[in-house]
Amino acid sequence: MARVLYFSRDYTTHDHRFLSALAESEHQVYYLQLERRGHTLEDRPIPAQIEQVPWRGGKGPATLRKAPGLLLDLRRILRDLQPDLVHAGPLQRSALLAALAGFRPLVSMSWGYDLIHDAGLNGFWRWATRFTLQHSSVMIGDCDAIRQLAISYGMPTERIVTFPWGIDLGCFTPGPPPGGSQTFTLLSTRGWEPIYGVDVIARAFVKAARQHPELRLVMLGNGSLATTLRQIFQVGGVEGQVLFPGHIAQADLPRYHRSADLYISASHSDGTSISLLEALASGRPALVSDIPGNREWVTPGENGWWFADGNADALAECILHAAEHRQQLIPMGQAARQIAEQHANWEHNFPRLLKAYRLALNPASMTQMQ
Questions:
Q1: pLDDT recorded at residue 368
Q2: What's residue 249's pLDDT?
Q3: Measured between alpha carbons, how far is 251 from 25 in angstroms, rounded to an integer?
Q4: What are the E-state strand segments in the chain?
Q5: What's the count of helices (H) and strands (E) in the chain, helices before strands?
Q6: Separation CA 14–CA 4 (nearest Å)
Q7: 101 part of a folded domain
Q8: Which of 260, 203, 272, 212 is nearest to 233 (CA)?
Q9: 360 Cβ partners below 8 Å, 6+ apart?
Q10: Where is 335: in which H helix or E strand?
């Protein structure tokens, strides 16, 4: 048994998934939250077996001005708690602080956007990425695209553990195809932020819905682009064909997947998207942007389609094609579920994290985790 400090940026659905599984492991796990952003990310409580560590962080945004004080307090926590291992991410935030604190062994976990987007923002972010990886005993990533980026920043391949985080296949299950309805429903579950390309979805839907009034779009969530999206739909004259359920509980999400004909995501940056895995497990084909993370999960014509990233016209054409060939969606949905069962089973994938812990605690125990 090891004493593990799980140090994350905020408390998200992904954190809840990891902490819940770790709570059932042999390890004694403590949770440290770097910041609290302005919206609720996860409505379920921290698992009872996990001890949350109080400190000066976790009460608001973690700004650069606060960094020296946070680093000092993190060093205090490490002295007092004396963990055997720190598991921290994203790379340039929680993991960077742990690396600056000089703690070893450090298991850094990429959250996708930290390597795909943040690492290339400027010289400081590139330095932070390299520094963190240089001081990490092991790095965890969720797809090959993340692995290759980590290698490009100097992480030795033998110290990278790759596994798709996965989902609960018993929760996200296929339902009857919604083909009996005259409508054709698209589902978007990503946040309303620029990185997720939701404005591309809005412009594409306006173009497609003008030609096919039976199209419906369900946009879960909220975010900084709320006003922009509503204006696009209003000016386009299709606001009556768009539903805005807002933020929903995680327990309600499977129902939305099963009531849709097609999952849609225009994200500009993703590793392995959990939202995409949830759709595939629900037996719904996926129409997604052509980016490396998506290409690892969606095969055009088999379980979904790609469209050129950022191209609303191309997305609109794909929407129309799917709606006009909806009979193809049943076998494509079956193929989607099969992919999820083969590669996205959380219960099968999670033990890879525990192997990464063993590698960090005893590097001689194994030579390669691939």
A1: 44
A2: 86
A3: 24
A4: 3-8, 28-33, 51-52, 85-89, 106-109, 138-141, 160-162, 184-188, 215-220, 242-246, 262-265, 286-289, 304-307
A5: 15, 13
A6: 17
A7: yes
A8: 203
A9: 85, 105, 106, 107, 137, 138
A10: helix 329-343
> Is residue 298 in some structural domain?
yes
Higher pLDDT, 127 or 250: 127
Tell whether 307 and 256 lie within a shared domain.
Answer: yes
Q: How many CB atoms lie within 10 A of CB 104?
A: 13
**pLDDT average, residue stretch 126-147:** 96
Confidence check: pLDDT of 369 > 50: no
**Phi (first) and psi of residue 219, to 5 degrees:** -115, 100
User: What mean pLDDT comes out for the span 325-353?
Assistant: 95
Residue 68, preceding peptide bond in cis (omega within 30° of 0): no
151 and 74 in a single domain? The answer is yes
Query: CB within 8 A of 348, min separation 6: which ones?
Result: 166
Q: Sort residue 301 into left (φ over 0), alpha (ψ -120 to 50) or beta.
A: left
The pLDDT of residue 179 is above 80: no
Task: Please tell me the total count of domains within the chain.
Answer: 2
> 141 and 279: one domain?
no
Contact (Cβ atoms closer than 8 angstroms) between residue 310 and residue 225: no
Residue 51: per-residue pLDDT:
97
**Residue 177 included in any domain:** no
Highest mean pLDDT among 172-176, 246-250, 352-356: 352-356
Cβ proximity of 28 and 110 under 8 Å: no
For 118, phi and psi rounded to 5 degrees? -65, -35
Band the pLDDT of 182: cuts 50, 70, 90: confident
Kindly report, residue by residue over 332-343, the tens digit of the pLDDT: 999 999 999 999
pTM: 0.87
One-character DSSP codes across 29-84: EEEEE----SS-S--SPPPTTSEEPP-S-SSS---GGGHHHHHHHHHHHHHHH--S
Angle of helix 198-211 relative to helix 226-236, nearest 10 degrees? 10
Spatial contact of 344 and 166, defined as CB atoms under 8 Å apart: yes
**Residue 242, in any domain of the structure:** yes
3-class DSSP assignment, residue 230: helix
